[in-house]
Amino acid sequence: MKSCKFLLLFLLLAVDCFGAGLADLQEQAVTNRQVVEKYRQALERAGHDETAARSPYYPSVDLSYTANLLDDDTFLEHRDNSVVYGAVRWNVFSGWRDRYGLRAAHWQTEAEAGRLNAIKQEIRLAVALRYLAIYAAGANLLVAQDSFSSLQKVLRDSENRFQAGLTRKNDLLKSQVDLDNAGITLKRAAAEVDRGWRLLAREVGAEPDREQLAFSEFDDLPVLPGPEELERQLLAGRSELRVLAKQAAAADEQVGLELASRYPRVDLTGSYRRYEDHPLAGFGDDTEEEVRNQLVVSYNLFDGFARQARVARAGAQARAVRQELAELQAELTTELYNLYQDFQVECGNVAAAAGGIIQAEENLRVTRLAYDEGLETEANLLDAVAGLTRARSNLAAAKRAVFDNYFRILRTTEGF
């Protein structure tokens, strides 16, 4: 019964009440952290670049008004004159340059969206690990408190036995040393809990309400699909992979954009020009008007090999991004399988550690009975207390390792 009570206390670590949980803290962190806003601004800039890349699909409209004040009349114009000019220009063909430019801008926007999602996933992982650290520190604190209480009882028994002449002075001193060491461990465990709360507050960007955190996420061990399914989720959903894929697509479009300069450019222009012999339009006596429609076909014959260099550079960039993508895929896949293996091992360790607690408690019970009957030494009793402490610490460490690997697998597969 004592073992069951301890395990239940270890699993809950807090009053089971309705309160905030890990998901709430993660969303709060995503909302509060300024680094997220930095990536949002980058995404917004990419959206504006995409809008700008779409502008060549529309005609451009220009309007100008010029007033001239000369020293004297000339053969071509009056001393005082004005010109009103308006033109509508539209590019009909430029070797599909506009299409490639728009698609490249679109893929860059998608890449920035992937970066934004990646930083959110990183923040959620950081919050989860801090949250887990507080849970584990709390479990260690419970172990330290229980060990300290047990050693206090042993010391009291030792003092009574020493006064009755049933034990030696060195046994009493050993009990005191073990209790002092347990006191130091208890203080360190309490300090670690406080440190964990401060680090969690930094990750969240606000002070969490300690009374509202129930740590219910750790009531049961997590369950994961097989490694093949996790790998599929990784390759399909990992933001960093999608960012590189979008950048590779953008690099391909950049190659097409540079190749577009091999084709002629066709532009249509419709313009209106009104000349008057007065600096203010509408007040002149002598006016001239001209309406002109133009079809302009231009073709670059030689640009000093700049086009070939730009095409080669864009192609090299596309190849480099794809090589980086392949390397990252291999790295993340290897990391995933290692994490999954560690997760499986630690799940087994939790079961073994739980069984170890039962054995250690039984050993302490038997040793204490024998000690009370004078059949066991105080040193053996202290060893039994230390063995129970180690068993409980092993359970805390194993369970923390399980969830540490679980959270990292979720991050690897974009599961947060």
What does the overall shape look like?
Answer: elongated
Separation of termini?
37 Å
Please give the CATH architecture.
Answer: Up-down Bundle
What fold name goes in the CATH topology slot? Outer membrane efflux proteins (OEP)
Q: Number of domains in the coordinates?
A: 1
Low-confidence spans: 1-19
Structure notes:
This protein has 416 residues and is of the alpha+beta class. The chain has one domain: Outer membrane efflux proteins (OEP), CATH 1.20.1600. Helix content is 67%, strand content 12%. It has 9 helices and 4 strands; from the N terminus they run αααββααααββαα. The chain has helices spanning 2-12, 22-32, 34-54, 97-163, 169-204, 227-237, 239-259, 306-372, 378-412, and strands at residues 60-69, 80-93, 265-276, 287-298. It has a 4-stranded antiparallel sheet with strand order 1-2-3-4, with no helix packed on it. Helix 6 runs antiparallel to helix 8 (306-372). The longest helix has 67 residues, at 97-163. The relative contact order is 0.15. Residues 1-19 have low confidence and may be disordered.
Task: Give me some keywords for this one.
alpha+beta, Outer membrane efflux proteins (OEP), four-stranded antiparallel beta sheet, 4 strands
Task: Describe the secondary-structure layout.
Blueprint: H1 2-12, H2 22-32, H3 34-54, E1 60-69, E2 80-93, H4 97-163, H5 169-204, H6 227-237, H7 239-259, E3 265-276, E4 287-298, H8 306-372, H9 378-412
Antiparallel strand pairs: 1-2, 2-3, 3-4
In short:
With about 425 residues, this protein is an alpha+beta fold.
